[in-house]
């Protein structure tokens, strides 16, 4: 899905990954990063079989609390005229594949999910029946996380889907 977005100065100008359903940027310094994903499939916690992405993605994410996820700072916003849910997620254990995979054949270990060492500021954007997930990734406890998450939210406001 083609789009344009204004990157904050804290991110590398060139993506580290750029495929039909996934684009990622790493930080200029440190381990922070931002990803945009159109999930093709998801794995339920401890699942081994890929499933279609849920129709109500925000409710699905909040349901991950039963598997060790924690969500805070939930709000709603608009991204390029589309409704979006924002929330910050952490986990007590690896929840591989629970956010989604860029291809139906991607193994669960190579898919994206909440991890015990990371904090993710997640945006769930409803695009006429498809879900766009975008998230900013920091290490849990990173003192600069609030500033990085604010840059991410400003980046979302610049998103234009073509």
- Strand percentage: 35-45%
> What spatial form do the alpha-carbon principal axes imply?
globular
Give the beta-strand count. 9
CATH fold label:
Protein Transport Mog1p, Chain A
Tell me the span between the first and last alpha carbons: 8 Å
Order of the strands making up the biggest sheet? 2-3-4-8-7-6-5
Quick summary of this structure?
The mean pLDDT is 95.
Question: Your description of this structure?
Answer:
- It is a single chain.
- The protein has a single domain (3-161), classed as Protein Transport Mog1p, Chain A (3-Layer(aba) Sandwich).
- It contains 2 helices and 9 strands, in the order ββββαββββαβ.
- With 162 residues, the protein is mainly beta.
- Helix content is 12%, strand content 35%.
- It has a 7-stranded antiparallel beta sheet. Strands 1-9 form a two-stranded antiparallel ribbon.
- The longest helix is centred in the last third of the chain and has 13 residues, at 145-157.
């Amino acid at each position: 899905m083609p789009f344009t977005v204004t990157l904050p100065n804290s991110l590398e100008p060139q993506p580290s990954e750029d495929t039909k359903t996934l684009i990622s940027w790493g930080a200029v310094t440190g381990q922070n990063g931002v990803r945009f994903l159109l999930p093709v499939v998801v794995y339920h916690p401890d699942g081994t079989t890929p499933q279609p992405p849920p129709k109500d993605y925000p409710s699905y994410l909040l349901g991950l609390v039963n598997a060790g996820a924690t969500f805070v700072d939930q709000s709603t916003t608009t991204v390029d005229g589309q409704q979006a849910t924002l929330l910050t997620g952490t986990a007590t254990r690896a929840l591989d594949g629970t956010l989604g995979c860029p291809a139906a054949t991607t193994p669960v270990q190579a898919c994206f999910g909440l991890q015990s060492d990371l904090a993710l500021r997640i945006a769930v954007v409803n695009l006429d029946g498809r879900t766009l997930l975008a998230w900013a990734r920091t290490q849990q406890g990173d003192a600069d996380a609030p500033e990085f998450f604010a840059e991410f939210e400003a980046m979302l406001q610049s998103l234009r889907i073509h």
